[in-house]
Amino acid sequence: MRTHVGEVLALFREHGELSRTEVIDVSGLSRSTVNQRLAALDTAGLISEIGGGSSTGGRPSSRFAFNRSRAAFLTVDIGATGLVAALCDLGGQPFAHTQRSIDVWEGPRPVLAVVDAAFAELLEEAGGPEVWGIGIGVPGPVEFAAGRVVNPPIMTGWDGFDIAGWFSGYAVPVVVENDANSRAVAESRPRAADAVRHDDLISLKLGTGIGSGLVFNGQIIRGSDGAAGDIGHTRAAVSDSSAPLPCRCGNVGCVEAYAGGWALIRDLAAVGVPAADVAEVVSLVRQGNLEAVRLVRQAGRVLGDAVADLVSILNPESIILSGQLAECGEVLLSGVRERVYQRSLPLATRNLSILVSSLGEFAGVTGLALITADQLFDTGNIDTLLERLAPAA
Fold first, then answer.
1. Of the candidates 248, 213, 230, 223, the residue with the CA atom closest to the CA atom of residue 321
2. Which sequence ranges are marked TM in the entry (predicted)?
3. What is the pLDDT at residue 195?
4. What does pTM read for this prediction?
5. Is 392 among the domain residues?
């Protein structure tokens, strides 16, 4: 009976609420099979009956909704210099969060100790909700199945570290994902039952560094080694004839060396405009500082050049910018749009939208919760969950 319970649950995760008749119509299953699967999900508390549906003359069809508050996910979006930790419901919505400053170059143990403390604070403040999974986002390539970072350009000491194993004390599934991939997933999923999915998009995470995630045909494109889409450490297309600039990763001429937040701080200092962090760069742009505006717009052009070939090759419906630097808004967007529309194929840009995320600081943790839910509720895993939740005989 439970072989395809996950597929029925997926309908509720996507639509929010459905009647018994609608489940039968959408799934193509028989009424008796649907009744069995709804009963299993109801017993586990994953769906709840919310009243009668429409009637065609007989008894109204029962209506059910996905019980998002049944349990919670712990998630953390780790960046180069800061992190956002959150408790999210089963639908990916954060309901408690906290922020911390970190230095990712200190290595995994000091940073993950900060994560431990943030998680403990969230659980205490929320009254100890039942946790069903943990999602960890990191700014580097990830071997998804193993939960480990693989040869990251900037995460000194993290290569091969067992991040998933660090959280084994929680005795729940742990997902480790590239931070830009998690944001791409958050942007691709509808935020309401009547909203539209965005199955083909490029997500750019712009902060101290630069990351990018790809979702096409509704699926994350990770590549064979977790490095797909990482434009931050590809060669920048710049017209400057001077020697290529050094990057934090050890190479020269990377996109991040010209358009990353740390590079903008460097270039502002060179013209006598001090900025301690990316937040101050954004503040200078909002204040109309001419040098900050010039440099951020130029960073947008570098980013646009970097992503233009991807647009021509992959034909996304949208490019969505998130992260602190994205708060520069149109100053940054104008440079990206200028280069993308100049360099990409006309057909690939005909219906393309380039915009700033509306999720703000929660883009990463939301995507991590959704990816964790995908794993937990997968048809290959949900049997174990239902067996654990089944009432004792």
1. 213
2. none
3. 63
4. 0.91
5. no
In a domain, 134, yes or no: yes
State whether 175 and 320 are in the same domain: no
Do residues 284 and 273 lie in contact, with contact meaning Cβ atoms separated by under 8 Å? yes
Same domain, 206 and 255: yes
**pLDDT for residue 370:** 97
Exposure string (b/e) for 97-110, b if CB count within 10 Å is 16 or more? bbebebebeeebee
Q: Could you tell me the residue range of the domain that residue 166 belongs to? A: 70-187+363-378
Quote the crossing angle between the two packed helices 363-376 and 179-188, to the nearest 10°: 80
pLDDT confidence of residue 1: 38
State whether 202 and 105 are in the same domain.
no
The pairing of beta strand 318-322 with beta strand 201-206: parallel
- Look-up: residue for tokens 């180069």? 80
pLDDT of residue 241: 65
- Residue 131: HSE in the Cβ half-sphere, 13 Å Cα cutoff: 25
Do 342 and 205 lie in one domain? The reply is yes
Q: How far is CA 293 from the centre of its chain?
A: 28
Does 74 lie in the same domain as 57?
A: no
Query: What's the chain's Rg over C-alpha atoms?
Result: 23
- Amino acid 243: pLDDT: 87
**Which positions ≥6 away from 133 have C-beta within 8 Å?**
73, 74, 172, 173, 174, 175, 372, 373, 375, 376
> What is the per-residue pLDDT for 3?
43
Q: Is residue 384 part of a domain?
A: no
Q: Distance (Å, rounded) from C-alpha 31 to C-alpha 360?
A: 43
Distance between CA atoms of 21 and 100, rounded to whole angstroms? 47
Q: Are 94 and 69 in contact (CB under 8 A)?
A: no
Q: State the amino acid at position 162 in one-letter form.
A: D
Domain shared by 340 and 284, yes or no: yes
* Measured torsion, CA atoms of residues 255, 258, 261, 263, in degrees rounded to the nearest 10: 130
Please check whether residue 176 is in contact with residue 163, taking contact to mean a CB–CB distance below 8 angstroms: yes
CATH number at residue 221: 3.30.420.40
Domain shared by 248 and 269, yes or no: yes
The residue from 32, 66, 100 where one domain ends is 66
Q: What is the pLDDT of residue 55?
A: 53
Number of domain units in the chain: 3
The parts of the chain modelled with pLDDT lower than 70 are: 1-3, 51-61, 192-196, 240-241, 392-393
Domain end residue (candidates: 21, 49, 66): 66
